[in-house]
Amino acid sequence: MTQPIIRFEGASKSFGGQVVLQELDLDVAPGEFLTIIGRSGCGKTTALRLVNGLLAPDAGRVLVQGRDVAGCDPAVLRRGIGYAIQGVGLFPHMTVEKNIAYVPSISGLDGWKGAERREKAAGLLKSVGLDPDLAGRYPRSLSGGQRQRVGIARALAAGPEILLMDEPFGAVDEITRGQLQDEILRIHERSGITILFVTHDIGEALKLGTRTLVLEAGRIEQCAPPSQILQAPATAFVEQLVCRSREFQMRA
Ligand SMILES: Nc1ncnc2c1ncn2[C@@H]1O[C@H](COP(=O)(O)OP(=O)(O)OP(=O)(O)O)[C@@H](O)[C@H]1O
Ligand SMILES: [Mg+2]
Fold first, then answer.
1. Whether the CB of 17 sits within 6 Å of ligand 1
2. What is the mean pLDDT of each run of 10 residues along the chain (252 residues)?
3. From the CA of 45, how far away is ligand 1's center (Å)?
4. What CATH number is given to the structural domain containing 24?
5. How far is the CA of 205 from the centre of ligand 2 (A)?
6. What pTM does this model have?
7. Last residue of a domain, one of 115, 144, 159
């Protein structure tokens, strides 16, 4: 592997007495689309938050572009890492355009004022399949799927090299979900951005991922390309997940 863009080096995290991540070792190469799946509470969100420094490991390290997250300026680190979450978390009192421009503006990035800002926001809206005319609207006047797309546009605004997505398509209908999946695949292909994508849907994990990480109780069950997960599940737990995805395919 070329130098990993993200490296977990024996990273452990506990809350109170509860061990949530246990000596996680994982390298993510630049341009990978890593999907992360596992039961509720197995440590998926915790793993993402170690990458953008919202949480610090109790033991071990997490490196981003070769640098220990613990020693990075959080503001600089997070400018390079987009974060899109379920429920989106748009600012309700800001227009779509202002929401999108928020991170670049507070970071003082050039070209995020007046007409230039409008143009950039319009470009991002188009890239997530939205009409640029939505720029002046407020989040409350958007559908759930539109809000989700604006959340992705916002996460992409500062031109990050890494995109963390935590169940970003959880709250939309199946058709919109399929469209959002195709859009994120296009964005990934076009930009070469590295994506860590948490999902509860094994079908989604296998469709989107160049590799899929299966976590159980804070440990890696398997981390492999989807074809390998399907053909050679490493553990009984992964086998079960795969069986469930076959059931879905059969019913579809
Ligand atoms: N800040 C916190 N304080 C205390 N406990 C926490 C905190 N954050 C997470 N936990 C606990 O750590 C465990 C793992 O949480 P995490 O959010 O990583 O799970 P998850 O895999 O993302 O689950 P889900 O699929 O439900 O989102 C859970 O038991 C959770 O209650
Ligand atoms: Mg979570």
1. no
2. 91 94 97 96 95 95 96 88 81 94 81 86 90 94 88 89 90 82 92 94 94 96 96 95 75 54
3. 7
4. 3.40.50.300
5. 15
6. 0.92
7. 159
